[in-house]
From TrEMBL:
Annotated Pfam families: M20_dimer, Peptidase_M20
Protein name as annotated: Hydantoinase/carbamoylase family amidase
EC assignment: 3.5.-.-
Annotated positions binding Zn(2+) 2: 91, 123, 376
UniProt KW keywords: Hydrolase, Manganese, Metal-binding, Zinc
Chain ranges of the Peptidase M20 dimerisation domain: 201-303
Chain residues that bind Zn(2+) 1: 80, 91, 182
Family to which the UniProt record says this protein belongs: Belongs to the peptidase M20 family.
Organism: Sediminimonas qiaohouensis
Cofactor notes: Binds 2 Zn(2+) ions per subunit.
Gene3D superfamilies, alphabetized: 3.30.70.360, Zn peptidases (3.40.630.10)
Enzyme class, first EC level, given as a word: hydrolase
Cofactors demanded by this protein: Mn(2+); Zn(2+)
Length: 405
């Protein structure tokens, strides 16, 4: 199987034209937007021309199904083609177009059966990896249909724009494995000058809202020693938390206060209430639990010390997911063959569709570098030589898994 890197890159650039926006190679192609639907229709036609059977399921996941003999299964490759509200051209789209090129190249030489998928709403307009969650059975369609985006549009309303294309759900037992290629979205490969990363697992996530309630008061007349300033309580919480995590976390552990609502949010009023998000990620479920204990204990201490009322929203989370060892081994061998000593094994700090698919079948992931570690931005990019290397590594791994290498 000889992949055609020029054809792959040309089609990858063509896909970028759907929703092209902003500076450089920016893309605005949120799930179910006109640009997303047009891109999926174009992809469906490319799949048909590659000898695959295009198939839209009820939630807009697009499948390119390889023909197989009775009792035979195909290997599934892919990712997603929707984007963030302001995104880059490679996030997810790279994995879809690599999958298409490998499936087509395999068909051209009567090689292994390879099917392709572009999952819908991986980027979370309505939830977290929505399309693959529904397909994997971790989120029911009935529940999904009630989800709303930031403008109040329901998932049911949004997916109705693709109802004329929809057929039934694809049975998971058509496939015996899944591999997703993706940009790293971080700096490690780029900084090390490495060409590929074989993913060991996808981190677990914990996420909750915390509320600190003090006393709203006049900013000019309330002495500092009399204040019950909710924002100052958040600041103290953050400082103590960072110090207390020091002997618990690893270099791969991350935690983020990403959204803060300070009320009433006026220049001349001491904030009386602060609601903020607290999210943390790690590959170790026990460490995630220890971090939760530290977060809650620290919040309690700060609330007591600064005369705050403390409350929590519901805890949301996903467990860490290990990638399949056999598929990792094939990716290791392929990376060493294509890019000798210029690859590494590494965890994924971001969520991906592979975390859902792993509940149904063996799953693995391959990363290529992100220039300066930038993603979810118009500036997102990867050197085309690294894109070509990633394609060759993935193709070689497929050959090895299917007995051709």
């Amino acid at each position: 199987m000889q992949v055609n890197t020029d054809r792959f890159l040309a089609e990858l650039h063509k896909l970028r034209e759907f929703g092209a926006a902003g500076v450089g190679k920016g893309v605005v192609r949120p799930a179910y937007s006109p640009a997303d639907i047009e891109a999926r229709k174009w992809l469906a036609e490319r799949m048909r021309l590659a000898g695959l059977t295009p198939h839209f399921d009820p939630v807009g996941n697009l499948w390119g199904l390889a023909p197989v003999d009775a009792g035979e299964k195909s290997l599934l490759l892919g990712s997603h083609s929707d984007s963030q509200p302001e995104g880059g051209w490679l996030d997810g789209a790279l994995g879809v177009m690599m999958a298409l090129e490998i499936a087509r190249s395999a068909r051209e030489v009567d090689g292994p059966a390879v099917s392709v998928v572009s999952f819908q709403d991986e980027e979370g307009r309505f939830g977290v990896t929505t399309g693959s969650s529904i397909w994997a059975g971790t989120l029911s369609l009935e529940q999904a249909d009630t989800l709303t985006d930031r403008d109040g549009i329901t998932f049911a309303e949004a997916r109705s724009a693709m109802a004329h294309l929809a057929e039934g759900f694809v049975a998971p037992d058509r496939f015996d494995g899944f591999i997703e290629c993706h940009i790293e979205q971080g700096p490690w490969l780029y900084e090390a000058g490495e060409a590929a990363g074989v993913v060991t697992g996808i981190v677990g996530i914990r996420d909750m809202r915390i509320t600190l309630k003090g006393q709203q008061n006049h900013a000019g007349t309330t002495p500092m020693h009399r204040r019950r300033d909710a924002f100052q309580a958040l600041s103290e919480f953050n400082a103590r938390l960072n110090d207390r995590f020091r002997n618990v976390v690893t270099p791969e552990t991350v935690w983020t206060i990403g959204h803060v609502d300070v009320q009433p949010g006026a220049h001349s009023i001491v904030p009386g209430r602060c609601v903020f998000s607290m999210q943390w990620r790690d590959m170790d479920a026990d460490r995630l639990a220890r971090m939760e204990t530290i977060i809650r204990d620290t919040a309690t201490e700060v609330a007591d010390d600064m005369a705050m009322e403390l409350s929590y929203g519901p805890m949301l989370g996903l467990e860490p997911v290990a990638m399949d060892k056999d598929q990792q081994a094939a990716l290791h061998a392929a990376a060493q063959d294509v890019a000798p000593d210029r690859w590494r094994s590494m965890p994924s700090g971001a969520l991906h569709d592979a975390s859902n698919v792993a509940a149904l079948m063996p799953a693995a992931m391959l990363f290529v570098p992100s220039i300066d570690g930038i993603s979810h931005a118009f500036e997102e990019d990867t050197d085309e030589a690294d894109l070509a290397t990633g394609l060759k590594v993935l193709a070689e791994a497929v050959s090895r898994l299917r007995g051709g290498g």
